[in-house]
Each structure stands twice: as C-alpha cells, then as structure tokens.
Amino acid sequence: IELERDLRKAVQRHELELYYQPQIRTGNNDMVGVEALVRWNHPTKGTLSPGIFIPIAEETGLIHEIGTWTLREACSQMRKWHLAGGPLIPVSVNLSSHQFHQPNLIEYIRGILEETGLEPEYLELEITESMMMDATVSTEILQQLNEFGVKISLDDFGTGYSSLSYLKQFPIHRLKIDRSFITDITDNTSDQAIVATIISMAKHLNMDVIAEGIETKDQLEFLTQNACQEIQGYYFSKPLPALQVEESFFIPQ
Ligand code: G
Ligand code: G
Ligand code: MN
Ligand code: NA
Predict the structure, then answer these.
(1) pTM above threshold 0.95
(2) Is 18 in the pocket of ligand 1 (CB under 6 A)?
(3) How many domains does the chain contain in total?
(4) Domain for residue 212, yes or no?
(5) Is residue 218 part of a domain?
(6) What is the pLDDT of residues 25-80, one digit of tens each?
(7) Which residues have C-beta within 8 Å of that of residue 112, sequence separation ≥ 6?
(8) Which range of residues forms the domain containing residue 148?
(9) CA dist 200 to 6, 69, 215, 232, Å?
(10) What is d(CA 212, CA 79) in angstroms, rounded to the nearest whole number?
(11) How far apart are alpha carbons 164 and 190 in whole angstroms?
(12) Which CATH number is 60's domain given?
C-alpha cells in the first residue's frame, strides 16, 4: 500500500530510470541491440526491481503511465545515441499485456515514435507467448505493427503456452530463448535438445533468435556451436545506466 502510494508519484518525481542490457552477436562481439529494463530509484528503499513494482503498476492501472514513460524514454535515448554517432541498433522494450491490449496501440506507438523522432525499425516490442495467443486481438495488432515497421520479439520463449502454428501465422521477428533453459545447459541434455531445436526452428522460419541469461563461457560455447548468433546476459554485461553503456560500449578502448 505504501509502495503503491509512492509509485503514484514516482514518474513526476523522476525516480524511474532505464537501464540497458547489450545484446551481442557471437561471431564478432558487436552490440546488435539493447533491452531497456526499468528501475525505480526509491527515495528510501534504494533501487527497486521491476519484478517488484511492475505487478503493482498492473494492478493499479499505473502501468499505462509507467509504460508510456518507459517507451518514450527508450525511444528518445536511442534517437540521441543515433544522432551522436552511436551504433544504429534497435531498442527492445517490454510490453505488459495491459499495454498490448489497449485499444489504440498502433496510434499510441506511432505517436511516441513521432515525438521522439525514432524510426519504427529501431523499436522492438517484447511480448510473451500468452499475449500472442490471445487471438481475439493479436492477429490484427501484430500485422499492423509489422506493416508500420516496428519489430516484435517473443520474450521468455518456451515457458508459456504457445501453439507453433501461431509462429508461422504471425509476423514475429525474433525468439528470445528463456534463461531457464540456459542455466544448466552445459550439463542438462534435455535443455540442450530444447535450445538446439528452438535455434534450428527459428532459422527455418526466418526468424532471429537470441539466448538470454548467458553467464558463463561454457554456456556461450554451447550456443556458438549450435549457431545461435545473438546472446544477452551477465557474461557480457548486466543492464547498465545509459551513461555506462556509452562509456563501455560506444567509445573504442
Ligand atoms: O530487469 P529485471 O530482470 O529485474 O526485470 C524483471 C522483469 O521486469 C522482467 O520480466 C522484465 O521483462 C520486466 N520489465 C523490465 N522492464 C520493464 C518495462 O519497462 N515494462 C514492463 N512491462 N516490464 C518490464
Ligand atoms: O522477462 P525478461 O526476459 O524481460 O527479463 C529479463 C531479466 O533478466 C532482467 O531482470 C535482467 O536483469 C535479467 N537478466 C539479464 N541477464 C541475466 C543473466 O545473465 N542472469 C540472470 N540471472 N538474470 C539476467
Ligand atoms: Mn524482456
Ligand atoms: Na525474457
């Protein structure tokens, strides 16, 4: 209840901050994208993770205000980086299902891109399998987003309920292999089979595929050997404040 009261004021008080986690191409260690992950710098409780406050935001409806702030900030930061000569890479933003199901999603996204000057192809929206499977709305929404040029990725892939037939019907650009399949991948032969199969399936469906939660060299090696070209995880970088992304990744060292 206290947190909820504080969260209501967090946006106006500029307490939210976006961190960015680099997404790396395994062949040459180039940064191919960044995922924006929101943090709350709470005045007394320190830095709070979205795992704590996004559920509160969803229950209270504050998710619309916070989600709008997040999208605007991510697009605006990316545009700044592009103008400053940073790499021409997209930003991935996590959408909650409330946001995905808002009635005017396309116009809303178009508005944010126009305001911030970011071209649509540099925005990727991360949705989950359950959001995609809600067929009453998603076919049309996903097709409109695709026509507009915004990319869609399926987050936490493999952990939700999705029908594979949806993957061929819908314009999904990228599968994000969930971290839970990566954690024990060096020992667990089931995880190895699942991950190798997802990578192969994505290729045959002409989708990109990225593995999340890479923390060790051995995990990276398995993925490289199985032709997974993009990875994200602490092994390369934790999510970082914008300034640290610039310092660590933009300026040649
Ligand atoms: O960064 P971290 O691992 O603490 O994120 C925890 C969860 O919060 C993840 O599931 C992530 O997708 C989600 N999350 C992070 N940032 C956002 C955001 O801006 N919007 C939404 N809806 N979820 C987010
Ligand atoms: O649900 P989603 O995939 O958006 O959540 C991403 C979450 O995973 C973020 O909270 C981020 O901080 C976290 N994360 C990113 N890389 C790693 C990693 O290598 N290991 C672990 N344990 N968590 C990670
Ligand atoms: Mn995500
Ligand atoms: Na994920």
Answers:
(1) yes
(2) no
(3) 1
(4) no
(5) no
(6) 999 999 999 999 999 999 999 999 999 999 999 999 999 999 999 999 999 999 99
(7) 68, 71, 72, 75
(8) 2-177+238-250
(9) 46, 37, 22, 18
(10) 25
(11) 19
(12) 3.20.20.450
Give the closest residue (by CA) to ligand 2 atom 13: 213
Contact 194, 162 (CB under 8 A): no
Tens of pLDDT, residue by residue over 82-114, are 999 999 999 999 999 999 988 899 999 999 999
Quickly tell me which residue has 């680099």 as its tokens: 22
Residue 204 lies in a domain: no
Ligand 4 centroid from CA 253, angstroms = 30
Whose atoms come closest to the Cα of 92: which ligand? Answer: 3
Mean pLDDT score of the chain, rounded to an integer?
A: 94
DSSP the chain: -HHHHHHHHHTTTT-EEEEEEEEEETTT--EEEEEEEEEEEETTTEEE-HHHHHHHHHHHTTHHHHHHHHHHHHHHHHHHHHHTT-----EEEE--HHHHT-TTHHHHHHHHHHHHT--GGGEEEEEEHHHHH-HHHHHHHHHHHHHHT-EEEEEEETSS---HHHHHHS---EEEE-GGGTTTTTT-HHHHHHHHHHHHHHHHTT-EEEEE---SHHHHHHHHHTT--EEESTTT---EEHHHHIIIIIS--
Three-state SS string across 150-207, please?
CEEEEEEECCCCCCHHHHHHCCCCEEEECHHHCCCCCCCHHHHHHHHHHHHHHHHCCC
Distance 35 CA to ligand 3 centre (A): 7
- Ligand 1 touching residue 47 (CB < 6 A): no
Q: With respect to residue 206, please indicate whether it lies within any of the assigned structural domains.
A: no
Q: Is 94 in the pocket of ligand 1 (CB under 6 A)?
A: yes
